[in-house]
Amino acid sequence: MTDEDLTVRREVPRLDPELVLPPPALLAPPIFEEPATAPPVPALLAAPVLEELTETSFRLPVIIDEPPAPSPGVKPARVPAGPVKRLPSPLTELVVLGSLGIAALAAFAGITWLAAIVVLLLVAAAGLGVLAYQPVLVFCLMGFTLGAAPNVQTPVLGVSITFVLSAAMWGALAVMPEVQHRVNWAAGLSAVLIGLAFFTFVGNPITGAAVQDFVRWSITAAAVYPLSVLPARQLARVGRWFVYGCTAAAAFGIALVAVDRDGSKLDRLTFLGYSADGGNGRFVFGANGNFARLTSTYVDPNLGGLIMAVGLLLALALLRGRLRVLSVGLLVLAIALTLSRADIGAVAVAAVLVVLFSGVSGRIRGRLLGLGVLAGTAMLALPAIRSRLTNSFGSNDRGSSARWEAFEIFPDQMSGHWLLGRGFGAPELVDASAAAATNYVANAPLLTVYRGGIVVGLAFTVLMLTAALFGWRLMRGSAFEPAAVGAGYLGIMLVALQLDFPVVTISAATLAFAILLVFVSRPDAFSDEFTDD
User: Fold this and answer.
1) Which of 215, 246, 253, 450 is the one with CA 20 to 30 A from 319?
2) Is the pLDDT of residue 2 over 60?
3) For residues 19 and 109, what is the distance between their CA atoms, to the nearest angstrom?
């Protein structure tokens, strides 16, 4: 290679001396390494540029006509690669989801030992994921199991897999270097709530049941922090896994309602929390007949309705295209078949809020109104749903009568317990037989007072109302996805939390509510960049 091959054409325009340009190294980066006998291109340019910078103007290098081929034996320069961030691959997700399906089929077929082995392997894989390169997989597994089967117990430990993964999220968080630790309003107010609840816990008699109740509730309530500090892309991934789990449970529940009217097949699903002795079916008894309620993998239809309602909101926010249509359709039908008035009412109120008060375009609101009317008409055509809604709050509705009676006797029940409440682990809150004999309020804020005292109840109310403020702001925006989540939270707060109590007493419902709070506080996760078609 000769010096003529390295000739660089330069133009010398006179420019404004106050104009600030990048450093010379950025003006003409080397394309390849030159042989040792020839100076590199930047060196040829640096001297003239520095010389011109001492005057009131400078010379700009122009592109080389054609980069000459490197001499034999000279390797092109390599740019050092930065750290590679690995996320779960589609194959990994397929293996995990397939393993969960195998475990479910094995348990349904009565092969409990196979289901136990598969579940143990998945738990071990989650632990390895914490220590290896995919700690976000622990968050994804938590979301999927919560949505699909929250009551599945961990072999040996005897606690739900959802609870184990909720605790494991903290370990996963410790090995995620890309996480920026910060405390937003959801995490901060949740921490205050847990701290105040701890004082009421130690202020009441400490029993084994109290310790278990407090630990389960506090671990799931504290999940707000590790979820809230995830990068937006990973948080959206966790939300989608939760939606996938809810959608799978919805499809399974719809099939069960169609083929198992008397609930006899539920006796085989002991790994989900059902009793092997029978009596697992849930029914609504009324003047128009008895109707089976969808329980699916949730055991309790009210718990299932709440979890699937949160899944419905995130399906609207995180999915797109046909996948969104399929998921939303299954979840809406499944929520209706639970015959849970609190959750059906929450979804209906959310839809009304979007139509009347959101900032989305009139075209979208018009479509939503039409779809809502069509869906409502179709639901009322089903005898079970029509009977459940039309007979609600009448004199023959035992559930409504018991709710009103519980409100009336609430002050007497709290007499002498206003400061510290009746305590974690109170028999009526942890034992089914004691709960049946005690008519306590089916209202999340008041039940928080019942268990933890007036101060804890006020802290929960502040958290609930703060989230309502941010939910309102999301709803008033012009984007549909954040508006749907904001209105959905308001619907759940105004209806579901006032007419039912799983958020307070059932750790799976507490965790679902924590996920909802996180997404209300992190609308950046709704970007189209992070969604699935």
Assistant:
1) 253
2) no
3) 76
